[in-house]
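User: Please run a holo structure prediction.
Assistant: Happy to. Please share the sequence and the ligand.
User: Here you go; the ligand is NAP.
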Amino acid sequence: MSQVRVDSTADGSGAPNEAGELRGRTVVLIGGGSGIGLRVAHRVVAAGGRVVLGGRTAARLTAAAAELGDGARWQTVDTGDTASLAAFFDGIERVDHLFTTAASYQVGPMRELSAADAASPFESKFWGQYHAIRLAAPKLAADGSVVLMSGAASARPAGLAPAYVACNAAIEGLGRGLAVELAPVRVNVVSPGTVDGHLWSNRPDLARAAAFDQYRRDTLLGRPATEDEIAHSVVYLFTNTFTTGSTLYPDGGYTLR
Ligand SMILES: NC(=O)c1ccc[n+]([C@@H]2O[C@H](COP(=O)([O-])OP(=O)(O)OC[C@H]3O[C@@H](n4cnc5c(N)ncnc54)[C@H](OP(=O)(O)O)[C@@H]3O)[C@@H](O)[C@H]2O)c1
C-alpha cells in the first residue's frame, strides 16, 4: 500500500511553522486601522507578512501603520462605495488573505428602528464585505483565504436586535456559499462574542458596563474577549490550509449558556 505524505509547512521541513505561512504574504485588512483588524495586523507583521490597511480616516490609518513599521501600508476606502473599493483593490497587486472588519450600523428592536436603521447592518456589514470580496477576487492567491466577520449574536441573540442577528447569520451562510464558489481559495467566518476593545470603548459608559456585566453572566469563561484573542482566531483561519466553509466562534462559551 502506498503512503501519501502531506507536508503543509511553509518551508517544507515538516516542522510546525504556523508563522511561516504568513512570511512574505500580503494580508489586506479593511478596518485594520483599529480594533480587531489592527491586532491581526500586528500578528501578521510579527510573522513576517505585509499588511495593507483600509479605512475611511487617513489619520487613524497613518497612526496604525506607524505602530506597525515597514510591513504596513494603507489606503483610504469606504466599503459602502463600490467605486472606492474598486480603486482600493486597483492599487494592490496580489491578495493572499482578506479580512474586513469595516462596518457602521444601528442595532435595536424591530418595533423601534426606522427602516433605514434596520437595514444598516445588511447595507454596511453584509454588502460591504460581499463587495470587498467580489472586487478582491481577481487578485486572490489560489492558496490564499478570506475571513468574513460575523458575530455570535447569529447563534444566540443578545438584547433586541433581530435585523443584526439575521445579518450575522446571513454572513455565515455567505461564507459557506463563497467557499464553494471560490475554491481552492479558502473562505471562513469568525463569529466573536463581546470584545473589550475599541468598538465598545466608543459606546456610552453605562451601556458598555451593562453589556459587559451581562456577558460575564452569560458566558462560560465569565468575561468578554480581548481583541487579540479574536485576532488569534483570524490568523488560525488564514493559516490552516484544510479549513474552508467553517464558522469559528471565539465567544468564551456564550452560545452554550
Ligand atoms: N467588538 C465586538 O465586541 C464585536 C463582537 C462581534 C462582532 N464584531 C464585529 O466586528 C466589526 C468591528 O470591528 P472592531 O470590533 O475591531 O471595531 P472597530 O475598532 O470600530 O473597527 C472598525 C473599523 O472599520 C472602519 N470602518 C467603519 N466603517 C467603514 C467603512 N464603511 N469603510 C471602511 N472602513 C470602515 C473604522 O475606521 P473608520 O471609521 O476610520 O473608517 C474602524 O477602523 C463589526 O463588523 C462588528 O459587528 C465586533
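The chain has one domain: 19-248.
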